[in-house]
From TrEMBL:
The name this protein goes by in its record: Modular protein
One Gene Ontology MF term: protein-tyrosine sulfotransferase activity
Keyword flag Kinase: no
InterPro entries: P-loop_NTPase, TPST-like
Listed SUPFAM superfamilies: P-loop containing nucleoside triphosphate hydrolases
Keywords, sorted A to Z: Transferase
Source taxonomy: Bacteria, Bacillati, Actinomycetota, Actinomycetes, Micromonosporales
Pfam families named among the record's database cross-references: Sulfotransfer_3
Organism superkingdom: Bacteria
Length: 305
């Protein structure tokens, strides 16, 4: 199969482990007048993604109980992937009718059911460009979340993209998973360390030079102006004070959140949150377990000396 041509757009693709501040960063950047930045758009399954999205969109339009549930969950697991994608697009401000048009056009243009990674990225590009034009922004962005691990693959398809990877002290992340989201998060400090390393250890070694930036969550909330000035310089965008006042603006995620777990928190002004929470929320044994596995990366990122 021939290699597909790269996309001409210049998105801002945000990455990071779950509970690391990716949603906060996306909403802050969305406040900039030149940007429209949305949440994650997941597309790993099923093989016939295009057809599945269209069918799920139709069921959602008819409020079929099979595709409804808490948040982006569905009563019938079969419909989860398609309905989840539709709901995520609504978080980005792309309604069902517009998404149906975009998916249909992509299927027709490619002659596929959007089964390959490249075809699915093409759909994401179409969605991002649609949203950018709709609001008159210069650039669009979404969250890659943990898929920042594949930054080199995304960089190949988007040669003009910039990647911003927000990292958080892995010990705090472990505490957040174990205490805040026990139903779907990591179940032990050791498991959290392995998962955190999967996300933070590789990207900086394979990302294209000049197109990848790491920032720390702790710096974003403690020194937002300095940290965001660094991000703006990296992106080649002018500074705008709206970045420090994101809670005063409308964001599609907050308008149609579909139960996003971080929506309520990111609607508030920037605050230091619970940096260092591992000191009270983890036992000494749990901290030692995490540091035993992740010590070198904690040192590289400045979390331990």
């Amino acid at each position: 199969m021939p290699t597909p041509p790269p996309f001409a757009s210049d998105p801002i693709l945000l990455g990071g482990e779950n509970r690391s501040g990716t949603t906060l960063l996306s909403v802050v950047l969305d406040a900039h007048p030149d940007l429209v930045v949305g949440p994650e758009l997941d597309f790993p399954n099923p093989p016939n993604l295009g057809e599945h999205i269209l069918a799920a969109a139709d069921l959602l339009t008819r409020r079929d109980p099979r595709v409804l549930g808490p948040g982006t969950d569905t009563a019938d697991p079969y419909w989860y992937d398609g309905a989840h994608f539709v709901k995520q697009c609504e978080r980005f401000g792309v309604g069902i009718d517009d998404l149906t048009t975009l998916v249909t056009a992509a299927r027709d243009a490619l002659g596929t059911e959007l089964s390959s990674f490249e075809d699915r990225c093409r759909l994401i590009d179409d969605i991002g460009e649609f949203r950018r034009r709709a609001v008159g922004a210069r650039r669009w962005g979404i969250k890659l979340q943990r898929k920042i691990q594949r930054v080199d693959d995304y960089a190949r398809l988007w040669p003009r993209a910039h990647f911003v990877h927000i990292v958080r002290d892995g010990r705090d992340l472990a505490a957040s998973h174990l205490k805040t989201v026990p139903t779907w998060g990591y179940r032990s400090a050791t498991e959290a360390a392995r998962g955190w390393l999967e996300v933070v250890a590789r990207p900086h070694t394979v990302a294209p030079q000049g197109r990848y930036l790491e920032i720390r969550y702790e710096d974003l909330v403690a020194a937002p102006k300095e940290t965001l000035e660094q991000v703006m310089q990296f992106l080649g965008l002018r500074w705008d004070d709206a970045l420090l006042r994101h809670s005063e603006f409308e964001h599609s995620l907050l308008h149609r959140s579909w139960g996003h777990p971080a929506a309520e928190a990111v609607a508030r002004p920037l605050y230091t949150g619970r940096a260092g929470r591992y000191r009270t929320d983890l036992t000494a044994e749990q901290v030692a377990d995490f540091e035993r596995l992740a010590g070198p990366e904690l040192r590289r990122l400045g979390y331990v000396s």
